[in-house]
Amino acid sequence: MLILPFFLFVLASCSSDSETNNNAKIELDFWTLFGGGDLSFMEEIVEEFNNSQDEIVVNMPAIRNSDYYTKLVTSVAANRGPDVAIAHTSKIPELNSRGLTEPIDDFAEEVGLDFNEFTKNLVEGTNLNGKHYGVPIDTHPFIMYVNNDLAAQAGVLDENGNIIMEETPEGYIDFLLKIKKALPDKIPLAISNAGADPFRMWWAFYFQMGGSPIYSGDLSSPDVTIDREIAIKAANYVRSLFHEHEIVPLNLADFYQDFQTGRAVTMTTGVWATGIWETTEGLDFTALPLPNLFEQKATWGDSHTLIMPIKENTTREKQLAVVKFMDFVTDRGVDWAEAGHIPAKKSVVESQEFQDLPYRSDYAKVAEYVALPNKTAYGDMSKRVFEQNLDLAWTNRESTEKVIDTLIKDLENLVKK
């Protein structure tokens, strides 16, 4: 039997390993917070990416939405995090302040990902101190839905099927009161009277009224700069829908179901509901921007972005693969728009393929004036402070003046911790 010298055996083994490594794909772990329809659309995009080339394979494990950010922060801090992950724009400053995110500008330039191709205010939301810490894939703003059959019965549609409404504070209320009078057994406006959605409406009207930023200055130690008078004025307007005009019934058990089953004529919520309504048999609806009732164009919104978490044992080759994947996902914005979201890349929104999608093009322009949350490490905590305090106004347990004063005090205490 021929026995090879030991050094030749080692050389042959190394050569074999090298060939194996050269032929191996770069594997990326991709974490998302999506569920339901959103998840299935993203799974399709990932599958399409994996089938489009032979160099990179993206794995997408299931992560529970309820504790997604906790798991993300913990895993990245322990150097066991994903290579690429979804994060809301509002969450990026907090992740960055903890040292958990990687700027991607250098990799983007090498790959050919151009930040100028994205809607300006969305990409600006990922820019911290001159560096981009995320690539936006969408915006998901707060908009308005109309049940066309009920609106026609109420006499608030013209011959072309457009709503008849003067876009002023009084005009919006008159529009809803006309529905209330014409269809007394229906809900003119379906919205919860606690939690996220009435807060989002308040946010939209606050910035439509020209409200100043909630915070200013340093990302980690900001000053509270909310405009008290405008905050009270916006709260009074939203509160009047529940109490003074009794347009919104109190304590709706499920305002989504109210709209879906034809009990509500209009509804306000995020664009993610579009995918639900268009798969609801017999529901003829229109999706519209939230009316701009005051001086400025604005609505509440956030953005899903792709971020590159810090990872000690990564390589530049792997980081470039991450950004190639990011670029691919943003180019597939039409596929992602099936979930109802507005794609972040301008060329996608302008494409005929997107324009041909039902409903989405009707509210796509909203992306240009979404009032994104302030860049602050206190984004999530601030949202809870807003909702807890404003709920007292919607339920008429406290005056709006007291609610806003307590809100401001709570925000100031929050950022001083």
From TrEMBL:
Pfam families: SBP_bac_8. InterPro entries: Bact_solute-bd_prot1 (IPR050490), SBP (IPR006059). It comes from the Bacteria. SUPFAM superfamilies: Periplasmic binding protein-like II. This is ABC transporter substrate-binding protein. It comes from Gracilibacillus dipsosauri.
